[in-house]
Amino acid sequence: MEIKPDSNHNKLMGDLSEELQSEISRQESEANLQFALGAAQLGVWNMNPETGIVYFDERCRELYGNPEEEILNFETLVLHIHFEDREKVITAIRNALDPDKRSPYDVRYRTVGATDNTLRWLQCIGKAYFTGEGIPYRFSGVSRNVTDEVSSRERVAWADQQAAMTIEGSGAGSFLVNLATDEIIYSPTMSRIITGRENSAYSRDVFIRHVHPEDADTRLNAYKNASTTGQLRYEARFVWHDNSVHWIRVIGQYLFDSTGKAVSLSGVVMDITDRIEAENIIRTSEEHLRTLIEQAPVATSIFVGKEMIIELPNEAMLKIWGKGKGVIGKPLHEALPELQGQPFLQILSNIFETGIPYAASGSCADLLIDGVLETFYFDFTYKPLRNSKGEIYAILDMAVDVTEQVKSRQALEQSEERYRQLVNELEQRVQQRTEELHQANQELLNSNSNLQQFAYAASHDMQEPLRKILSFSSRLQTVYGNSFDENGIFMLNRIQDASKRMSSMIDDLLAYSRLTTRDSAFEPVDLGKVVSSVIADLEFSIEEQKSDIQVSHLPTVWGNASQLTQLVQNLLSNAIKYRKQDVPSVIEIHARELDATEIMDLPRLLSDHSYIRFEVRDNGIGFDERYLDRIFQMFQRLHGRGEFSGSGIGLALCKKVVQNHHGYITAKSEPEIGSTFIVYLPVPN
């Protein structure tokens, strides 16, 4: 049984056929669009204005250096735009998304590749779409790589600039040579430039006759080269009629006939003496600058132009960068791409704009050394360099690596932080101890006051019975001396000797106790006068011991005259007392100034005073230096009372006087050779 489709079935099949045909057409249209975009090397992008998420096709990703992020957002992409163009792009997008402006988006800017650091110029065209309420819901468009176009335009602009400079060169002289007749047609300016004066009778050989002999080959080679290229160009020295020498540039063009034969030569001449001399001066200055930079003790380099082309980096700077000489001639941002995102490039750009130098101490910088990004710290200065017109043409960079110092300081700060809590705790303990010490000090003051009163009273109370003992023993010896036997007389003499020693000891103790640690009555004291006074007081002892006192010139010192007299008297008395019986006693007293090295080696001296070395030298019995510390202590004796009299306090008193004067006392001695007592005393400023 044959089934025939009804009309509804035919209609359904027709609709399906139309939908299939429409889908095929749509796919073909998209394929054609993709082909057209690919052929035009256009990248397609879409941005959600609300979320900031940007959807790039593969071409757009290539134009941005293939960012690693799967999901791109506007804030991330802005970082890949050249820092000089970011504000321009952000402003253009803001105006396009503004419902009141709805400006067309058509902007040209540079990108720095996310992974390859390659600089690209992009031309981006787009449009924002708005809801009925004026809210943007989509922002899309296309991007094209126009790097080659921009480079070509720059080269064309440079060529145009060179041509304009040639055409606008004032003072140029023209000439035309007929090669068939060697006839030359020239302007008066050309004559003046070549010979130094205007003349209408020159022939073509004027270029030969006036060229400097040392530049004849230069001219000849230029003509040989022009015979094949058609272009004549050379610079040479010309000798004027007054024998002055001038640098001349000659530029010419051969004109050929239809057979290729040269028929004429036309050109211009320009006096470039000023330029050559200026170049020589600049060259000399550059050589001096190069030498200075190479020999500079710190890392130094020059960045030329706003592109900051690296020139003249010395070895110290290359070492800091961790780069070789291959960076010379490159823009700084290309040679050191790790500087992107750090402040240095922007600082340099600001200096080109403002001319204000910049300096920093301990500034942090991240540098790529052997493929590893490391952090360093530098003291550096950026100083603008100006040409003769006052224009900034370069920046001088001088840097010192202070990484170790900064890290040491940081370590110290961390250490200080670690111990800060301990310090706080110690401060609390110190405060507690201070209160305790204050109380103890008050008790000590009371005790010292009582002790001084006791010493004063005791000395007077002790002196009174001693005086009576001496008085009555003397009367016994005088009145009843004949009544005593030999043993009684011996005991009476021992009583008198002991009483005298006791009185002398009390006097010495009183003298010692009266020496204060800070005597305010300090003044310039003539040491020579002090010694003379002491010698006069000891005249009886000196004559009795037959001592020869030899005194050299003595300076003025800073001190207390009374205490210094006690010092000298004790030292001289000891020198007289401890003599050898069988050798004439000779005592030398002299002094000299100390140098700074000697002062540094001595303890507890005043830092703002100079010092002298005062010596008392004798040829007496001497002593073993192993007892040196002992002799300056109270009641210490190296000899028995039967051999030498004394209380054992004299040298302790000397040490106390020297300490009061912020000085130092010591001695040198050998048994049976003699002793030298050395005292260091300050002198007035």
How does this model look, in words?
This protein is an alpha+beta fold and 685 residues long. It has five domains: 37-151, PAS domain (Beta-Lactamase), CATH 3.30.450.20; 169-271, 2-Layer Sandwich (Beta-Lactamase), CATH 3.30.450.20; 278-401, 2-Layer Sandwich (Beta-Lactamase); 407-494; 516-682, Heat Shock Protein 90 (2-Layer Sandwich). 45% of the residues lie in helices and 26% in strands. The protein contains 20 helices and 23 strands. It has a six-stranded antiparallel sheet with strand order 3-2-1-6-5-4, with helices on both faces. It has a five-stranded antiparallel sheet with strand order 8-7-11-10-9, with helices on both faces. It has a five-stranded antiparallel sheet with strand order 13-12-16-15-14. Strand 15 (372-386) and strand 16 (392-401) form a beta hairpin. Helix 13 (403-479) runs antiparallel to helix 14 (486-513), helix 15 crosses helix 17 (561-577) and helix 17 runs antiparallel to helix 20 (650-660). Residues 159-169 and 640-644 have low confidence and may be disordered.
Q: What is the gyration radius calculated from CA atoms?
A: 53 Å
> What is the H level of CATH, i.e. the homologous superfamily of the largest domain?
Histidine kinase-like ATPase, C-terminal domain
Shape field: elongated
Strand element count:
23
Distance between the termini: 142 Å
Helices, by number, come to 20
- What is the highest CATH level, the class of the largest domain? Alpha Beta
Fraction in beta strands? 25-35%
Please outline the helices and strands.
Elements: H1 7-39, E1 42-47, E2 53-56, H2 58-63, E3 72-73, H3 74-78, H4 86-97, E4 105-112, E5 119-130, E6 136-145, H5 147-167, E7 173-178, E8 183-186, H6 188-195, H7 206-209, H8 216-229, E9 231-239, E10 245-256, E11 262-271, H9 273-295, E12 299-304, E13 309-311, H10 315-321, H11 332-335, H12 344-354, E14 358-369, E15 372-386, E16 392-401, H13 403-479, H14 486-513, E17 523-526, H15 527-537, H16 539-545, E18 547-551, E19 556-559, H17 561-577, E20 585-593, H18 596-600, E21 611-618, H19 628-631, H20 650-660, E22 664-670, E23 674-682
Parallel strand pairs: 18-20
Antiparallel strand pairs: 1-2, 1-6, 2-3, 4-5, 5-6, 7-8, 7-11, 9-10, 10-11, 12-13, 12-16, 14-15, 15-16, 17-19, 20-21, 21-23, 22-23
